[in-house]
Amino acid sequence: MSSPVQIFGPVISTYVRIVEIVCEEAGLAHEVVPTPAHSPENRHPFGKVPVVHIDGHEMYETVSIANYIDTAHNGGALRPADPVRRAAMERWIGVGNSYLFPLFERGLVMPYIMHRYAGAELDKGRIAKALPDIAKTLSFIDLEMQRDGAWSNDGFTMADIFLYCILRGVELTPEGAAGIAQLQVLPLWMVQCRQRASIKATRWESET
Ligand SMILES: N[C@@H](CCC(=O)N[C@@H](CS)C(=O)NCC(=O)O)C(=O)O
Q1: Binding site membership of 67 for ligand 1 (Cβ less than 6 Å)
Q2: Distance between CA atoms of 208 and 204, rounded to whole angstroms?
Q3: What is the pLDDT of residues 59-93, one digit of tens each?
Q4: What 3-state class would DSSP assign to 184?
Q5: Measuring CA to CA, how many Å separate 21 from each of 5, 90, 137?
Q6: Contact between residue 20 and residue 202 where contact means Cβ atoms under 8 Å apart
Q7: DSSP character string of 99-136
């Protein structure tokens, strides 16, 4: 039996969870080795997490790790073969990584993490400043889903994994939960994702 995939990063982290879910989908044993992003033990050259040990290789950057696992261990099942559908899936992963995650993380998710886990005062000013953009962005996603299904027409793909993890952090804040609940399609999609075994198996402790 091969050794478990080692995922170095914090136990509660969007990108750590993405790798955990992809491992689950591929049937690979995995473990999180708790490693804060800015600790000396973190070997990511840009100070991010996760760094992953798999098949004798050390890897960083979640898209490349996730694609490696899907190709090497899952027959590519998480990515549509059709070039147009694959382009749409990759566009949404790009949107998630480049625009959604930075906006949500800085403006809403991180202030709550610092408040809940580091005992910092909740930075209400930062949240209030970010909320209009966050609300606009959530509406954009919902309208795209209403219009053509966005990434959600191809069964369960890599885009579902990235976007669920990015949006779940938002949903675990009071403002994010209220914002998502008033949309039409996004909350239904989130509920549907939660039925997936890989998503159930990787729930954060704070979700139970
Ligand atoms: N481009 C990186 C981004 C990963 C990322 O942003 N991870 C967050 C945690 S979920 C992080 O390292 N945050 C610490 C920081 O930005 O200082 C990847 O895809 O792996």
Answers
A1: no
A2: 7
A3: 999 999 999 999 999 999 999 999 999 999 999 99
A4: coil
A5: 12, 17, 25
A6: yes
A7: IIHHHHIIIIIHHHHHHHHH-PPP-HHHHHHHHHHHHH
**What is the whole-number distance in angstroms between the Cα of residue 49 and the centre of ligand 1?**
5
Domains, the chain, in order of start with CATH, read 5-73 (3.40.30.10), 83-197 (1.20.1050.10)
Residue 49 near residue 9 (C-beta atoms within 8 A): yes
- What does the pLDDT look like over 97-150, one tens digit per residue? 999 999 999 999 999 999 999 999 999 999 999 999 999 999 999 999 999 999
pLDDT class of 2 with cuts at 50, 70, 90: confident
What's the mean per-residue pLDDT of the chain?
96
The residues that bridge with 54 in the sheet, in sequence order, are 57
Q: Which atom of ligand 1 is nearest to the CA of 15?
A: 10
